[in-house]
Specification:
The protein is α+β, with helices and mostly antiparallel strands. The chain has a single domain, classed as 60s Ribosomal Protein L30, Chain: A (2-Layer Sandwich), CATH 3.30.1330.80. The longest helix has 11 residues. It starts with a strand and ends with a helix. The radius of gyration is 17 Å and the shape is globular. It has an eight-stranded mixed sheet. Strands 11, 12, 13, 14 and 15 form a five-stranded antiparallel sheet that branches. Helix content is 16%, strand content 43%. The model has no long low-confidence stretch (mean pLDDT 88).
C-alpha cells in the first residue's frame, strides 16, 4: 500500500498505457508499474522499448519475465543479459518495471579521488522528499554487477529470483552509471535510496550495480519533481493513510545492494 501523503509530496500521477502522452517532461520521471507489484511476481508489462525511449533518454529497469537488465543511455535502450553481455534491445520488447527521465542536470561535479558510490551520492543527493536522477561517467576502479535470466510462469517472488542472481565484476573500466535516488520511506512505489545500472564505454558489458567505486568521473545530477506511473493490466496504485511494515522492501534492498 502506498502512503497518500507520499503520493502528494512526490506529485505522483497514475495512468494506463492507452492514456500515455507523447514525450517526456523535464524534471519528471516516468515509471512503469511499482516495486510492490514486481516484488510479488508481476513480470509482464505492456510498454515497449520504443515507447519507453520516447519518454526519456536516461533510465533503467528490466524486461518481461525479468529477461535481463534494462539500461537507457543517450536515448538508446540496452539489454544486459544474464552473463553481463550487452546489446541494443529489440524495439518490440516490453518492460514490467522501469524508470526513465528526460535528463536535464542542474549539478555537475568532477571526481578525481577513488570513493564509494554511496558516499558520493550521499554528498550530491542527500535525503529529500523528492527523487534525483544521476549520471556518473568516466573510469571506475571497481564495479560489482548482477543480472538475472528469464523466468518461467508461475513466476516466483522477486526475492527468490535475486537469491540466485548472477554476479560479475569489472575492474579499472571506462563506462557510465545511470540511475535514481528515491526518498527514504516505507511505501511500495520504488526502493528507497539508490538504484543504479552500469554500461561500459564500448557498450559491450553492463548490468545492475550492486556496488562501485568511481575513480575519475564526472557526475551529473537532475532533481525530479513529478512522477508519472504507468499501470500494466492487473496492477493498481493502492493508497492508504498510514505506513506499512516495509519488511519485504527492506529484504529486497539488501539483495539489490549486496
Amino acid at each position: 500500500m502506498l502512503d497518500s501523503h507520499l503520493l502528494h509530496a512526490l506529485h505522483v500521477q497514475a495512468v494506463r498505457r492507452a492514456e500515455l502522452p507523447v514525450g517526456g517532461e523535464p524534471h519528471a520521471l516516468f515509471q512503469i508499474s511499482t516495486i510492490e507489484a514486481l516484488l510479488h511476481g508481476a513480470y509482464d508489462g505492456d510498454v515497449t522499448v520504443v515507447e519507453l525511449a520516447g519518454r526519456g533518454d536516461l533510465g533503467l529497469g528490466t524486461f518481461n519475465a525479468l529477461d535481463g537488465e534494462l539500461v537507457l543511455v543517450d536515448g538508446i535502450v540496452y539489454r544486459a543479459a544474464e552473463d553481463g553481455s550487452v546489446h541494443p534491445a529489440e524495439p518490440s520488447r516490453r518492460s514490467p518495471f522501469a524508470v526513465v527521465t528526460s535528463f536535464q542536470p542542474g549539478t555537475e561535479l568532477y571526481v578525481g579521488v577513488v570513493q564509494d558510490v554511496d558516499a558520493l551520492l550521499k554528498q550530491l543527493a542527500p535525503p529529500s522528499p523528492t527523487c534525483t536522477a544521476v549520471r556518473i561517467e568516466g573510469r571506475f576502479e571497481h564495479v560489482r554487477l548482477r543480472s538475472v535470466g528469464a523466468q518461467r510462469r508461475p513466476y516466483p517472488p522477486l526475492a527468490d529470483v535475486l537469491a540466485d542472481q548472477r554476479i560479475f565484476e569489472e575492474s579499472d573500466v571506462l563506462g557510465v552509471v545511470v540511475g535514481f535516488c528515491f526518498p527514504a520511506h516505507n511505501s511500495r512505489l520504488n526502493l528507497p535510496g539508490r538504484h543504479l545500472h552500469f554500461l561500459s564505454e564500448d557498450r559491450l558489458r553492463g548490468g545492475h550495480v550492486l556496488s562501485c567505486r568511481p575513480a575519475e568521473c564526472v557526475v551529473h545530477v537532475d532533481h525530479e519533481a513529478e512522477i508519472e506511473v504507468e499501470l500494466p493490466p492487473g496492477v493498481e496504485l493502492k493508497v492508504h493513510a498510514g505506513e506499512d511494515s516495509g519488511k519485504e522492501s527492506d529484504e529486497l534492498t539488501r539483495l539489490e545492494r549486496d
